[in-house]
Every structure is written in structure tokens, then in C-alpha cells.
Amino acid sequence: MHKPENKNLNQITVTDSAINYSFSLPRFQRKYVWKVPQEIKDLWLDIKEVFESIDPIEFKEDREKAIRKMGGDISLFMGNIIFLEIDSNKKEIIDGQQRFTTISILLIVFRQWLRDNGKSIQDANRLATTISDINKILNRVNDSGDILSARYIPATNISKLYHFICGKDWKGDFKTVEENGVPDIDPNINAIRRVKPEIDILKPIYEFFQKNITDLLDIEKDNFSILHHVITKLNFNEITLDNRRQAHQYFERTNARGTPLTVAEMLKAYLMSEIDERDIEEEWNKIVRNFGEKRILKGLKHFFRSYKGSTSSNRLFNDLKVFSNDDGNVNKKENANKILRELSRYSEFDFMIRHVFSDPAANEQTDVNGFLNYLQDLSKDSKKSFPVTCRVEKRDKIYKGIDAMNYFGIDTHIPMLWAIISKFYELNLDEDRQFHEDEILYNLFRDMERIHFLHKTVGKSQGKMEPIYSENAHKFMDCSTVEQFKSLLKSLYLKLNDFVPVREIFVENFAELQYSSKDIHYIFDRLNNHGVPRNNRKRMFDSRMALKNKKTLNGFDKEHWFPQSTAKHNEYISWFISDEENRKMQIRSYLKKESKNTFNQIENLTLNSEELESRLTAAEKISFEEFIKNNAKMALQGKIKKGDLSTPNWCHKIGNILVIDSEINNKHLNNMEPQDKYNKILELDHQNAVPYLKVFFAENSNNFADWDAERIQEYSKKLGTLAYTKYWHFQIPTQVQNMESIEGYTF
């Protein structure tokens, strides 16, 4: 394999041997499959975006100056294009045929637009040069510029028509082609080929480009040269293979991995072009392992965000290439080395944040120590030492904050944390008394957990907070003074504070949380351990297991305080007795059995249950109530046998849920009534082992004898209020609130 080279479309196609050079496809390549509006539209929008970023007046007056004003590089990166070199005049496209074919079709349409509008274009020389340049890319031409044949032979499902529309006889008229066909590709074969299937493929693409080019270009502005520049400067990472074995391996690998790895492969190829391959392979593999192969694109975007801000997937590779070259003075090798070094450090941090708690055998202290030890190693770059010996309360904030964010499925905050912690050391803030004594950095982990829980509980998308992190992380990296850092930290808190939901809305949503929610163990872990000394804490929650939403987690069960079985039975009997239609049926059944005369009187009358009951004597009314209750009990037994009962919604509400030691629950409490459970737990002294039980009992023990739907709803709301004002209370720390805001260092 040759060393990867960065080339634009013009450099790839128009070589020193321009007359004879050609491209084709190997037999194992698939057909041309890109369609409108999917891939075709995406490509056009990318090209249009670059086109519209260029000032047409400045470009016409001084092309080089206009390009420098845009940052020196206005090319659109198209990814890897992989060739197998057949001989000095021929290459096969191993990977990139869909893009290469589509760009060629775009050039054909552009050329036709120039021909159709040529009389209206004032600069005839520039027009002729542009058409000539396009012909040289599309075709093999002689010294006089005459077209000999198409330079590129595409997939067989479009090759005949493509060859024709590349040539000099094409006038943009598909109707004539549909009626008359096209000549055979081989000029020695005198035959006309019908190409209806090929027209069905190419015509929609051609017409899409035709319409969009017409809409984009303005003859009066004379801006066709900009489109010509953008297309011919489309940028590729050219990789040339030496043999077919390599070609097969590369084809299988790139097609098996799919789109998400494309940027990673491009970046790796770029780094390999600047750094010795032996120096990069091991480090690159470690980066991929840290991010995870399926997550590599996100990892690269997050890395870039932490240093430079947001970018699109299409722009990511181009932006990474100039990562440390803002002033244009850093050479490519130095830039590549910095990318590799910083990317490696960031990927380790990303891995630790997401996997620090991945050992099922680890306890909380081991987990947080592992992360703190990592931070200590990280800080060696700036000869600083993260305070691993910090107090238990500080460790707890770090541990719980990271564990909760992983559980919430959030990783968009990682670039922000990386930027903050990196700058924390660089500015010597670990020695700053205010940051040390007020635990500002530790509180940030806790507060990010709190705001995300509040936000998700009211049903808001966590993605709405993403711009706070993605658009501002780099500002921490860019700041150079403690004052600027503090101003940004204050601004971060102010932005997060905007997402605190209204108390009433949060309480209403919290009160609707149910037994089935996967958040139950997480919630009760926080309720149970709030303000409790470490020796008395019970770890009821584990982010690795909680996502599986099991009843039992870390030896603790989710349990209905009012038992489901009783709730189901009571609900059914209540329905049986009070339901209007069933009650009418039961009264008729009772009268038919106990009072024939009355039954005969009402048999053919349409009466509601109240009217029917008015026909009963006082004694019959008492007897009927016993009758319907007995029938309800018999019907209930039938339902129980069939398993045809459902738990009423009120029984599942969070005000009726507790997390209790599994052994005690299974041995002593199953299906007990609330008052009996309470007495048993007091007998076992279990309320002291699970601190939250003491809170629950203090609030509700007087109500357990008549614990019902109304009391459960009431306590669900009370618990929601406690969650909002105490357990997940989000408030900008006073020390942060008092920090000075500096213009230019806010979000």
C-alpha cells in the first residue's frame, strides 16, 4: 500500500498522462445505488453550503484572497477513495465509486448548464476554460481538447447511458435517448443499445442536479466559477493498493464497518501520512478501544468539542486536520502529533467516565478510588496531584454524580468535564483556597446529576441540554485566567438553572412514577442515603444493573407497601358491587331466586339499579347485599384461578413503593397488610438498617390501618416535594453566584 495522499478531484483525474488515464470498477463491486433524495441530496447540500460561504464579488476580483479570507481551505472533504493500480494508465476504484459516480454526473449536468447558458455569459474565455476543465475530468481528450472516450467506466447498471452523456453528442435530451437508444460503448461495434433501466436510474439524479444548479447559479452575478472551484477542489484521501488481495481485504473491511467509522479511518489515514506508521498503530488501537468501535464517531466529535466547539459530521475531519493550526504556523507533522497525543488523553478520560464502575465485584469505595487515582495520574502532566485523600463526602459526590449520569444514558457532558478538569490543573485551582474549601469542583458532579434528574422526571428530553455542553466546553479550554474560569463556571450554573422545572410540575410528574419505572432503585438509593454516614449506608442502586429494571438489585427488593394481591381483590369486589350493569344483573338474579312475584313485575321493564332496588323490601335489601358480596367472592376466585386480575394503578404509585432487604421481604413480609408489615419491621428492628424506613414510618404510621388510594396519592406528592426541595434540590452555590462575570466569558 502506498502512503495515503490528500488530493482534490482535479489532481486525482487530470494527471500528466491525462489523455490515456482511466478508472474502472473491479468485478466484485456493487451496482450504482445512490438515489434522490437520500444520498444525492446530502451531497448537494454539502456542496451548496461551501458554495454559499464564498463571496462571489471577492472571488471574482481576487480568488486567492477570497480563499485566504475563508481560512485558507474551502474544500469539502469527501472521505477515503481507495484505488488498485492496474498499470501506469489505469486504476480500479475499490472504495468510493458511489461518490465518484455521483460527482461525475453532477459535472455532466453542470457542463450542460454552461452550454445552455453560454450566450448569456459575458466572459467567453472563462466559460470555454471551465467547460474544457470539466471535459478533462470526465473524458480522455487529445491535445486539441477533443473528447475521445469517457475516462471513467462506472457500474454496469448505468455504464451504457453514462458513457453516452459524458460525450460530445449529449444535449441533455432524455426523450431522444428513450426513443432511439445509444451507440454501443465499443466504437468498433455498430449497434444501438436500449437503456430504459439506466434512464430510470440516472434521469431523476440528473434532473435533481439540473434544477438545483439552475436555482443556485445567477448569470448576472457570474458565479459559475465558484461552483466549478468547489467541485474540482472536492478533497479526498487517496489510498492506492498494490495487489488484488489488499483490494479485497480493504473492500470487505470498509463495507463491513459502515458509515460511523469513516471519519475515524480518514483521520487514521491522515495521521499515518504524517507520522511513521509504526508509531501510530498501537496508540490508535488504544483510542478505538477507549471510545468503542461503534462509538468512535461520537468520541471524535466530543474530543473536538472540548477544544474547539461544535462541528458537523461532514466538517469533522477537515476541522480535525487543522486542530492545532489556527495561525497557520504549525507544520503538518507537529499538528498530527498533537492530535494523536491529545486524542489519546481525551479517550482515556472518556473511557474512565463511562467505565469506572464496570467491575461487578467492585464496591463504591473501590470504584471512586479508581477514578481518583486516574485523575491523579492525569494531573502528572501539569505536575499536580488530584487530592485522592479527600474526605468521604467529596468522594461520594464524584461517585454518585458520574454513576447517575451513566445510568441516565448521558455522555454529552464529558467534553465539558474534560475541559473543566484540564483547565482546573493548568490554572492551579487545586491550590485555590476557595475551590478547595467550598468543594466547588466536587459539587459540580453532584449538581449535574440533580439537574438532569429533575429534567428527565418531567419528561423532557435530555438532548435539550446538550447545546450547553457542546457549544461551550471549548470556552473553558480557551480561558487563560482564574477570573475567566470562574466567570464561565458561573455562566454554566446559570444556564443549567434555566432547566430547573417549576416545582408544581415536577411534583405532579414525580407523583405519577410507578413500580414499573426503572428509576425506582436509583430514587430510593438517594432517598435512603441522603445525609447518612457512610457506615450506615445501603447501596440499593447500581447503574450497571438498574438499566435491566429488575425487582431485586444489590439485595434489595422493590415492594408494594399495600400488597398487590389485596389491591387487586378489593378493586374487583368493589367493581362487582358498584358497576351499574353488573348490579342490575345481580338484582334481577336475586329476585328471580328469592321473590318470584317481584321478578315477574319487573322482568320486562327497563330500570336502572336504583329503581330496581326501590322494589325491594328493607329485609330484601339487607339480604341482597349479602347475596352480591357472596357472588363477588365466588367470581373473584374464578378470576384468581384464571389469573385474570390487574393491579389498580394507584397501588403502583411511588407513594406505595419501598425498597426493602430481599431476605426480610421474602421471609417475613410477603402479602402482609400495611399495619402488619409495620409491626413486623419494628419487631425485626429493620427500620434502623434502612434509614429511609424511619422517615416513611414517621410520616405515615398513623395511617397504615386505612392505607388506601387517597393516602398513597397524598404521600406520592409529599415525596415529590421532598425530592424537589431536599434530595435533588438544585441551587447555584453561593460562592459561584458571587463570582464576577466577565464579558466574553459567558455562555
Structural summary, described in words:
The protein is α+β, with helices and mostly antiparallel strands. It folds into four domains: 5-257, no CATH class; 260-348, no CATH class; 365-500, no CATH class; 565-642, no CATH class. The protein is 59% helix and 7% strand. It contains 37 helices and twelve strands. The protein has a five-stranded mixed β-sheet. Strand 7 and strand 8 form a beta hairpin. Helix 2 runs parallel beside helix 9 (196-216). The longest helix is centred in the C-terminal third of the chain and has 25 residues, at 618-642. It is extended. The two termini are 47 Å apart. The model is unreliable at 256-261, 358-362 and 382-389 (pLDDT under 50).
How many independent structural domains? Answer: 4
Order of strands side by side in the largest beta sheet? 1-9-3-4-2
Kindly provide the radius of gyration, computed on alpha-carbon positions and rounded to a whole number of angstroms: 37 Å
> How much β-strand is present in the residues?
5-15%
- E-strand count: 12
Average residue pLDDT? 84
Provide the helix percentage: 55-70%
Poorly predicted residue ranges: 256-261, 358-362, 382-389
- Shape type: extended
Tally the helices.
37
